[in-house]
Amino acid sequence: MGLTVNNKEFESMQEFSKQGRGCATNRPSNYQIKRNDERVSRFRRRDLAASTATIPIMFIHITDGQNGEITEDQRLMQVEVLNQVFSQYGITFSYSPDDVIWEENINWYYMDIDSIDERLAKRELQSDPRFYLNLYTAGLTPGLLGWATYPWTRNGDMESDGVVILNEAFPEGSEENFNFGMTAVHEVGHWLGLYHTFEGGCDPYGDQVGDTPSHSGPNEGKPPEGRNNACNPKESAPIHNYMNYVDDEWMDEITDDQVTRIWEHIRIYRPEFID
Ligand SMILES: [Zn+2]
Questions:
Q1: What b/e sequence results for 88-125 when a residue is b if at least 16 CB atoms lie within 10 Å of its CB, and e otherwise?
Q2: C-alpha 246 to ligand 1 mean position (Å)
Q3: I want to staple 199 with a disulfide (CB 3.0 to 4.6 A). Which of 145, 195, 248, 261 is the partner?
Q4: Which residues surround ligand 1, an ion (CB under 5 A)?
């Protein structure tokens, strides 16, 4: 299925991903949406009393022997960025300097999503996903900034659980336009149950969230204020939302319904993190 973004044509979402923001998180299938989201919407009617969650991060840095170094300052900045976004909603990320794993492996360093290298690396390096967010960094297949597993894949595939980020997309990394730490925010958004805001294109409920205006495809760069590619002429595309594809500098929005969806997913799939 072709895709046009800013008058450029891409063969597929995967092609675009490798040239734009480079999030390779799998598109949900209709089956996934039906299975997961019907479960979530049943859950929605239950009591959603206020509570808090603490999510310890295990940083797992894969190097090729020369590249892939992440400093303690960068880890602390990344945790701070995550907390600036999520802690106001009761979700806090914690980190202890002991929770860092280093691994030198040139094959794993260049891993791609759903590859055997990813599988082997995660099998070897992960900490128990019930109690940690496994946050891997590596060089990745060129063009990718990262990817995440959705919460429901934990059932049946515990070992793939986690978030993978291009090392250069960490705060103060060398990936221009993507080095404020928002790649981790975006991928953690997936890991907590969010789809892209443009999921499903102009299907009004494509991302299963009611208060993000539907838009026909990703926005990239630093788009100007205005309607952009919103499907409804009276709405504006969510060009500042963390789950869009804009540059890090442009991202500063998560909506109430996205937060509600995250909490539903924590309760159903990641209850061990609830305080
Ligand atoms: Zn994404």
A1: ebbbbbebeeebeeebebeebbbbbbeeebbeebbeeb
A2: 11
A3: 195
A4: 23, 25
Distance 217 CA to ligand 1 centre (A): 12
Cα separation, 103 vs 61, in Å, equals: 6
Of 4-8, 41-45, 156-160, where does the model show the most confidence?
Answer: 156-160
Q: How far is the CA of 263 from the centre of ligand 1 (A)?
A: 19
Residue 104 appears among annotated catalytic residues = no
Q: What is the pLDDT of residue 256?
A: 94
Q: How far is the CA of 175 from the centre of ligand 1 (A)?
A: 17
Residue 21, token pair as written in the block: 């923001």
- CB 245 within 8 Å of CB 20: yes
**Average confidence (pLDDT) over 244-267:** 95
